[in-house]
Design goal:
Radius of gyration: 28 Å
CATH architecture of the largest domain: Orthogonal Bundle
Shape: globular
Order of helices and strands: EHEHEHEHEHHHHHHHHHHHEHHHHEEHEH
Structural class: alpha/beta
CATH topology of the largest domain: DNA Cyclobutane Dipyrimidine Photolyase, subunit A, domain 3
Helix content: 40-55%
Number of domains: 3
Length: 579
């Protein structure tokens, strides 16, 4: 253990729970002063829905692992404080320790940035030096502007990447090594125990027994910084080979599973970028650009977690069915692919990006439930729940974002692409373990005899479909959007048919609009839909023929069996007549 008598430096930990490539930690080390690592927990300041049950649970174990690493490598430790007010707590720490400087890595949510700006100003007024660093994103929001290429195309990741190229003055650089030493202070400030932060507290029943909803999460994840690198190495040495063409496969490990680690800063995006460069997967690297884009949009439109960016969509018609919402949340919709994904989310806190699109499309385009319900549920159940990313994705999926994606995932046909043999569905819906491949994604088409042999009872051990006419549900979704657009012509460009979004300056900006919406707005009475956004997946005529044949065989067998039973009844009743 090494003590130094200089004024300590306080390193305020937030979402940067790592030792490698951590500029604030390196800056603390370079002061040649005692380093006090402090983590303050104030759930209120995080903002509504910023800290869901799953993220808090992960945070508890990530902090435990980091604290163990700091003790093991530096004989130092993290000071934990549950703070009613972060500003007062930081000032108190400075007073207790006599610290001469505070270092931190920036956060970019508008409310947190405003808080940090206020705290920094108050510290500087007291003569305390403050140093802040950018490490959570590749491009900080205030470093990107649209002056060179304009606003048209805003919301598109391609447009954003070009903005980054045109406006970024500093190179991304390369990851920095972890510090060699972090000297301790002669007198460390008081620290609460990690458990006192109540991040991982599990609910209790009335009889005192614990409801361990996080058991599978604990068994499924390594919460350490090493866990982040192991997940990344596993991906670059295996899954990345199939990522470009088959990242949507839910039955194969083709995705990286590093999103929770990125969210809590257990691996830096710069490290991910450098580690994966040269592996010929631009699709994967674009995910980092999407991440930066979400924070840039949040900085420009702070209300996107709660208000449509296309303001005229505020009055769009939505279903109020609580039963449908609960069925979707619990994975009881009667559509196996949707249910498997929602059950995986509930048990493990994660699902891949393709499955997130599947369940979002089903909630919005087929159940007509408001995207805010999906956003709130993801914020509470995802381990990587991120206000900026979730808000952007749910707004886009809910048609009111700046980029109306030109696709809708069909709850059945999407399975032919992502889970062709039904292995994923069987993993999370074990009631289908014995059902043949041809019927696992549409058990309602399965012959009764095959269902019986597989032990599946629709309506008993697996629910009936909560909606049956998917085509009509989709048409209603189209009509709802068209109704809003026709009622608000001032927000529709008469020349291109694109929606118009008001900017803070008051200008109306044309934004990307789905082709089927533009067509239906121009032809509201048309029954055709030449620009349908529904992705049909890789349809298999062979599979459809197999289903038809099985039903025909079952019908024939059932008919023969019914004739035999009738014959037997006549014999037993003595009323059989030999003709």
């Amino acid at each position: 253990m090494r003590h130094i008598s200089n004024k300590p430096v306080i390193y305020w930990l937030r979402r940067d729970l790592r030792l490698h490539d951590n500029p604030a930690l390196v800056a603390a080390h370079e002061t040649n002063s005692p380093v006090i690592l402090a983590f303050l927990w104030n759930e209120t300041e995080e903002g509504p829905l910023a800290a869901g049950g799953a993220t808090k649970y992960w945070l508890h174990f990530a902090l435990r692992e980091l604290d163990n690493a700091v003790q093991r490598e530096y004989s130092n430790r993290i000071v934990f404080r549950k703070a009613a007010d972060s500003q007062k707590e930081i000032l108190s720490l400075v007073s207790e320790t006599g610290a001469g400087s505070v270092v931190m890595n920036n956060l970019y949510e508008p409310c947190l940035k405003a808080r940090d700006d206020k705290i920094s100003a108050s510290l500087q007024l007291k003569g305390v030096e403050v140093k802040r660093f950018d490490s959570y994103l590749l491009h900080a929001p205030d470093s990107v502007n649209t002056e060179s290429i304009g606003m048209r195309g805003i919301g598109s990741v391609t447009h954003f990447m070009e903005c980054c190229r045109q406006s970024s003055k500093d190179s991304i650089g390369f990851p920095v090594d972890k510090p060699s030493v972090l000297p301790t202070s002669v007198s460390m400030p008081h620290s609460q125990s990690l458990g006192e932060l109540d991040l991982a507290r599990l609910p209790q029943r009335r009889d005192g027994t614990i409801i361990d909803w996080a058991k599978v999460i604990r068994e499924s994840w390594d919460f350490s910084e090493d866990g982040a690198w192991n997940a990344l190495d596993l991906f670059v040495n295996g899954g990345i080979r199939n990522y470009e063409k088959e990242s949507g496969r839910s039955d194969m490990p083709n995705t990286s599973r590093i999103s929770p680690y990125l969210h809590f800063g257990q691996v830096s995006p710069r490290s991910v970028l450098r580690h994966a460069q040269g592996l010929r997967s631009p699709k994967f690297l674009r995910k980092l650009a999407w991440r930066d884009l979400s924070y840039w949009l949040l900085s420009k439109f702070p209300e996107i977690p709660s208000k449509p960016m296309r303001v005229h969509y505020q009055k769009q018609r939505w279903s109020q069915s609580k039963a449908h919402l609960k069925a979707w949340q619990k994975g009881n919709t009667g559509y196996p692919l949707v249910d498997a994904a929602m059950r995986q989310l509930w048990l493990t806190g994660w699902m891949n990006n393709y499955m997130r699109h599947v369940v979002a499309s089903f909630l919005i385009s087929y159940l007509h439930l408001h995207w805010e319900h999906g956003y709130a549920w993801f914020q509470d159940t995802l381990l990587d729940a991120d206000v900026a990313i979730n808000a952007m994705m749910w707004q886009n999926g809910g048609m009111s974002g700046l980029d109306q994606w030109n696709f809708v995932m069909h709850p059945v046909d999407a399975a032919l692409t992502c889970d062709p043999k039904g292995d994923y569905v069987r993993q999370w819906c074990p009631e289908f373990s014995a059902l043949p491949d041809d019927f696992v994604h549409k058990p309602w088409k399965c012959p009764p005899s095959i269902l019986r042999r597989a032990g599946v009872e629709i309506g008993k051990n697996y629910p009936h479909r909560i909606i049956t006419d998917l085509e009509e549900a989709r048409e209603q979704s189209l009509r709802d959007v068209v109704t809003i657009r026709l009622a608000n012509p001032q927000f529709v460009d008469p020349h291109t048919g694109n929606d118009l979004v008001p900017l803070p300056s008051g200008l109306l900006l044309p934004v990307i609009t789905r082709k089927e919406f533009k067509y239906k707005t121009a032809h509201p009475q048309a029954k055709d839909n030449p620009h349908t956004a529904v992705l049909r997946g890789y349809r298999s005529r062979k599979r459809d023929e197999a289903i038809a044949f099985a039903n025909q065989v079952d019908f024939t067998a059932s008919t023969v069996n019914e004739c035999a039973l009738r014959h037997k009844r006549y014999e037993e009743s003595g009323r059989f007549v030999d003709l």
